[in-house]
Design brief:
One of its GO terms (biological process) is sphingosine biosynthetic process. This is Neutral ceramidase. Its EC number is 3.5.1.23. By secondary structure, the protein is of the alpha+beta class. The protein folds into two domains: 416 residues, no CATH class; 122 residues, Immunoglobulin-like, CATH 2.60.40.2300. Helices cover 22% and strands 31% of the residues. Helix 1 packs across helix 2 and helix 9 packs parallel to helix 12.
C-alpha cells in the first residue's frame, strides 16, 4: 500500500515560428497545432510519508539540463526538501514535433534559434503544475506491474551496427529491438483507476521532418486514446485519469516499419551507408505503415495503446516494498572504467562524429554526409577548423575510430557546447527499479545496462527486481551505443559523445547506484560536481512580436473562407479566418485553447464543445502574410461515428496592438464559422 497522486498539465508553448526539436532541420519550424503537449506526473509515497518518488513523463524531445535545474529550484522553494535531485525523475517522450529552444548548451542553439524563454517557461511551468496537481491529490492506493510484447511497431534502424555485437550475445535475443512493454498500473484503495505508466522503446518519429504542426507523435496518440477511454465525456486533456507512454532504450528503434527506401526510385536502401544510387543518403527515408505520416502515427500509437490496455486490464502482480532513490552528478568527460582486473579505460571530452550530420533514415541530414563514415571529409573539416577550431590530438585519439566533426567538449564560446556534468539516477519502488538515463541507449546498450543492474541487485540480496530504463531524463547527452556498435560509426555511434567506453562508464555508475540502494548505503554516495546554470537571458533569433493588422474592412476573427453547408463523416470541414500570431497567445495565457468544434443541441438551444485543439481530429494552421497580416485555417477531420447534427468551428486568438510608439498591448478576439450539418454517409 502506498499514497499515490497523478497529475497532467499543458506544456505546449509557442506553436509558431519556433523550430521543432528533434530532427535538427532548420527548415522545420512550427506553423500550427495538431495536438497539445502535456507533462504527466506520478507521485508514490509510503504510508508514513517518510519517502517519496516522483516520475514525470513530458511530451517533449528530451529533458534538458536547463529544464531540470529550473524545475528543481522551483520545487525547492515551494516544497523545501520534499522533492529533490534524487527522488524526482524527469523524462521526455522524445516527440520530434515539439518546440525547441529550452537548452543552455550552445550546440542545441544552432537549430533552435538560441534560447527561447516562452518555450522553456512552458515546459518548466507545465512540469511543475503537473507535480502540484499530483501532490494535492494524494490518496491511498495500490500498484500493479505487467509486461507484454508489442508487435509490428518497430524496426532497428541501424541493423548493420547491431550485427557488430558478439554473435553469442545476439543469439540470446529473438529480435534486434526490445519488443517488451512494461506497464505500471495505479488504482486507489477502492480499485478505482488513477493512471498508468508504460515504458516501451520506440522513436516517436512517425511524424517526419516535413511536419510543421506541434504534436506528441505516436506515444502521445496512445496517451490520448487511453485517457479518452477512461475520462468518458471529457474533452481531450481533461479528466483525472493520467496515462503516460514513456521512452526507454529507443536509440536505434524506428516506428517506420516499412523500412528505408529511396524517395526517388522506391528501391530499398537498407545498406550500411543508408545511401541511394542516385541522390545518396539524402534520398534514403524510412516509411511508416500508413498512407501518410498522420495515419502512420495513429497506427503505431494504436498498437501501443491496445497492448497497454490489455496489460492494464490483466495486471495482477502487485508491487510492494520500500521506496528509495539515488542520484549523482558525474563528470562524464573524465570517468575511469575498470573493464577487468588489469584493464582500465577512460571516457572522453564530448565530440560528435561525421555521421552525426548524416542524420538517420527517420530524418536525413542536410548535407551529403553518409552514415558509417570512419574517415573525415576534408572540405567540412576545413570549414570546421576555421570556424570552431581543430580537435586536439588527445580528443582525436580518445574517440577513435570516430572522425570528429564537432569537438564540442573543447568549444566554450559563448557557453560550453555540450555538458560535462551529467545526472545518473535510479529510483526503486518496491521491486520496480527505474533507471533514469540521460540520453538514448541503443537496444543492446539497454539490455546490457538492465542486465548489469539486475545482477547487482541479485548479488546484494534483492533478487527478482523489475528493472526498467526511462530514457531522455534530466540532461541530454545524445546516444549511447555499445563499444562494438561504436566501431561502425553510424549515426548512433557518431552521436555517442563521450567516446567508445561511454556505455561501460554508465554501467559502472548505475551498478554503483543499484548497490547503494540494495545495501542501504545511499547516504555514502558522493554527490559529485554540481552542473553550471549559465546566465543567458533571452538570447534568440526569433522574430519579435510586433503590431498586427487585419485586411481592409475586416476584423480579427472574420471568416475569409467559409465552411461548406454540409459534410459526411470521413470528410474534412475547413474554415479560414483573419488570424494573428499564435505566439501572442502562448505568451499571455498558459493554457490557451485555439479552437472549439461545437454541436448545437435542439433541446437546450445552446452550443456544446465536442472537440478542442488537443483533439487529434482537429488541425490548426497559421500562415504569415505581409504587412503584419496572417491567416488561420482550422480543419476538423470528421471521424466515423460522429453524432449527426449541426456544428460550428470557433477560433480564439490574441493580436498585438500599438498603444503608442513604445507600448503594445495584446487583445483577445474570437471568430466562428457558419453552422454546418454532418449528415449520414
Amino acid at each position: 500500500n502506498y499514497m499515490l497522486g497523478v497529475g497532467r498539465a499543458d506544456c505546449t508553448g509557442p506553436v509558431a515560428q519556433v523550430p521543432l526539436m528533434g530532427y535538427a532541420n532548420p527548415d522545420q519550424v512550427g506553423g500550427g497545432l495538431l495536438t497539445r503537449l502535456y507533462s504527466r506526473a506520478f507521485i508514490v509515497a509510503d504510508l508514513n510519508d517518510s519517502r517519496r518518488v516522483v516520475f514525470v513523463s513530458a511530451d517533449i524531445g528530451m529533458v534538458s539540463q536547463r529544464v531540470r535545474l529550473e524545475v528543481l529550484q522551483k520545487l525547492k522553494s515551494k516544497y523545501g526538501d520534499v522533492y529533490r535531485q534524487d527522488n524526482v525523475i524527469l523524462s521526455g517522450t522524445h516527440t520530434h514535433s515539439g518546440p525547441a529552444g529550452y537548452f543552455q548548451y550552445t550546440l542545441f542553439w544552432l537549430t533552435s534559434k538560441g534560447l527561447i524563454r516562452p518555450s522553456l517557461n512552458s515546459i518548466v511551468n507545465g512540469i511543475l503544475k503537473s507535480i502540484d496537481i499530483a501532490h494535492e491529490n494524494m490518496k491511498r492506493g495500490r500498484l500493479f506491474i505487467n509486461r507484454g510484447t508489442v508487435e509490428n511497431s518497430q524496426i532497428n534502424r541501424s541493423p548493420f551496427s547491431y550485427l557488430e555485437n558478439p554473435a553469442s550475445e545476439r543469439s540470446r535475443y529473438s529480435s534486434n529491438t526490445d519488443k517488451e512493454m512494461v506497464m505500471l498500473k495505479m488504482v486507489d484503495e477502492d480499485g478505482q483507476d488513477l493512471g498508468l505508466i508504460s515504458w516501451f522503446a520506440v522513436h516517436p518519429v512517425s511524424m517526419n521532418n516535413t511536419n510543421q504542426l506541434v504534436n506528441s507523435d505516436n506515444v502521445g496518440y496512445a496517451s490520448y486514446l487511453f485517457e479518452q477511454e477512461k475520462n468518458k465525456g471529457m474533452l481531450p486533456g481533461e479528466g483525472s485519469f493520467v496515462a503516460a507512454f514513456a521512452s526507454s532504450n529507443l536509440g536505434d528503434v524506428s516506428p517506420n516499419t516499412r523500412g528505408p527506401s529511396c524517395a526517388n526510385t522506391g528501391e530499398s536502401c537498407d545498406n550500411p551507408q543508408s545511401s541511394c544510387p542516385v541522390g545518396g543518403a539524402t534520398m534514403c527515408m524510412a516509411k511508416g505503415p500508413g498512407q501518410d505520416m498522420f495515419e502512420s502515427t495513429r497506427i503505431i500509437g494504436q498498437n501501443i495503446y491496445l497492448k497497454a490496455r490489455e496489460l492494464y486490464e490483466q495486471a495482477s502482480q502487485e508491487i510492494t516494498g520500500p521506496l528509495s532513490s539515488a542520484h549523482q552528478w558525474v563528470n562524464m568527460s573524465d570517468v575511469s572504467v575498470e573493464l577487468n582486473a588489469t584493464h582500465m579505460v577512460k571516457t572522453c571530452k564530448p565530440a560528435l562524429g561525421h555521421s552525426f550530420a548524416a542524420g538517420t533514415i527517420d530524418g536525413v541530414g542536410a548535407f551529403n554526409f553518409t552514415q558509417g563514415s570512419v574517415e573525415g571529409d576534408p572540405f567540412w573539416d576545413q570549414i570546421r577548423d576555421q570556424l570552431l577550431g581543430e580537435p586536439s590530438n588527445e580528443t582525436k585519439a580518445c574517440h577513435k575510430p570516430k572522425p570528429i566533426l564537432f569537438s564540442t567538449g573543447e568549444m566554450t564560446r559563448p557557453h560550453p557546447w555540450h555538458p560535462d556534468i551529467v545526472d545518473v539516477q535510479m529510483a526503486a519502488v518496491g521491486s520496480l527499479a527505474i533507471v533514469a538515463v540521460p540520453g538514448e541507449f541503443t537496444t543492446m546498450s539497454g539490455r546490457r545496462l538492465r542486465e548489469a543492474v539486475t545482477s547487482e541487485f541479485d548479488s546484494h540480496g534483492t533478487p527478482r527486481m523489475n528493472v526498467v530504463i526511462a530514457g531522455l531524463c534530466n540532461v541530454y547527452t545524445h546516444y549511447i551505443a555499445t563499444y562494438e556498435e561504436y566501431q561502425a560509426q553510424r549515426y548512433e555511434a557518431a552521436s555517442t559523445i563521450y567516446g567508445p567506453h561511454t556505455l561501460s562508464a554508465y554501467i559502472q555508475l548505475y551498478r554503483g547506484l543499484a548497490r547503494a540502494i540494495a545495501t542501504g548505503t545511499i547516504q555514502d554516495l558522493p554527490r559529485g560536481p554540481e552542473p553550471p546554470l549559465f546566465n543567458i537571458g533571452n538570447l534568440t533569433l526569433l522574430p519579435s512580436l510586433s503590431a498586427e493588422r487585419a485586411p481592409a474592412n475586416k476584423a480579427f476573427g472574420d471568416v475569409l473562407q467559409e465552411v461548406r453547408q454540409q459534410y459526411r463523416e470521413g470528410e474534412v470541414a475547413e474554415v479560414t479566418f483573419v488570424g494573428a500570431n499564435p505566439r501572442n497567445s502562448a505568451e499571455n495565457a498558459t493554457e490557451h485553447n485555439f479552437l472549439m468544434v461545437e454541436r448545437y443541441s435542439n433541446t437546450s438551444g445552446t452550443w456544446h464543445g465536442v472537440q478542442n485543439d488537443a483533439s487529434w481530429d482537429t488541425r490548426f494552421y497559421w500562415t504569415k502574410g505581409s504587412l503584419g497580416r496572417s491567416n488561420v485555417t482550422i480543419q476538423w477531420h470528421i471521424p466515423h461515428g460522429t453524432e449527426l447534427g449541426t456544428y460550428r468551428i470557433r477560433y480564439f486568438g490574441h493580436y498585438k496592438k500599438n498603444l503608442s510608439l513604445i507600448r503594445t498591448i495584446t487583445v483577445p478576439f474570437e471568430g466562428s464559422s457558419s453552422a454546418f450539418e454532418v449528415t449520414a454517409p
